[in-house]
Amino acid sequence: MKLKLAFALLIAPLMIACGDDDPAGPSADSIAGTYRLQTVNGAALPFVFINEPGLRVEVMADEYILNANQSFTTTITLRETEDTVVTTTTDSYSGQWQIDGSEIILTSPGIVDRASFTNGNTLTFTFPGVALVYRK
Questions:
Q1: Burial classification of residue 83, based on how many CB atoms lie within 10 Å of its CB (0-12 exposed, 13-18 middle, 19 or more buried)
Q2: Which of 25, 27, 19, 3 is closest to 123 using CA atoms?
Q3: Are the CB atoms for 11 and 111 separated by under 8 Å?
């Protein structure tokens, strides 16, 4: 749970560039679906989130399920290696999402992320030094 929160806080200021041919923007139905993390900074998973002496934490998988009723659930799988002990954990949280012009705002207690929808199947979260690409 602590690692999911740490990762969520790291990506909390996310902004997602959005493009759509419809000037009114995407609809809730066109956005709804399961988006799985494909790349971080252009590299495939796993993504090394923490790499310190005696501790390595990797993101093995992450997904957002965006529902047409504008609720969402996100689930992350982390692999933690502490010295020689390897532990895999999965954590989830949920919330609501809404469309705001060309952005999607995802809210959950204590977390607000901005997202957008491109190519009909891609969410791209960007913030200084990191780009996360999720695809349906």
A1: exposed
A2: 19
A3: no
Between the alpha carbon of residue 70 and those of residues 27, 45, 73, the distances in Å are 11, 28, 10
Taking a C-beta distance cutoff of 8 angstroms, is the pair 80, 68 a contact?
no
Q: What is the pLDDT of residues 51-103, one digit of tens each?
A: 999 999 999 999 999 999 999 999 999 999 999 999 999 999 999 999 887 77
Q: Using an 8 Å Cβ cutoff, are 115 and 102 in contact?
A: no
**Cα distance between residue 123 and residue 39, in whole Å:** 11
Nearest C-alpha neighbor of 124 from the set 65, 41, 6: 41
Do residues 109 and 96 make contact, with C-beta atoms less than 8 angstroms apart? Answer: no
Q: Which residue has the tokens 């990762």?
A: 7
* pTM score above 0.85: no
Spell out the domains of the chain, with CATH numbers in brackets.
2-135 (2.40.128.280)
Q: Locate tokens 């954590």: which residue?
A: 91
CA angle 73, 121, 66 (to 5 degrees): 15
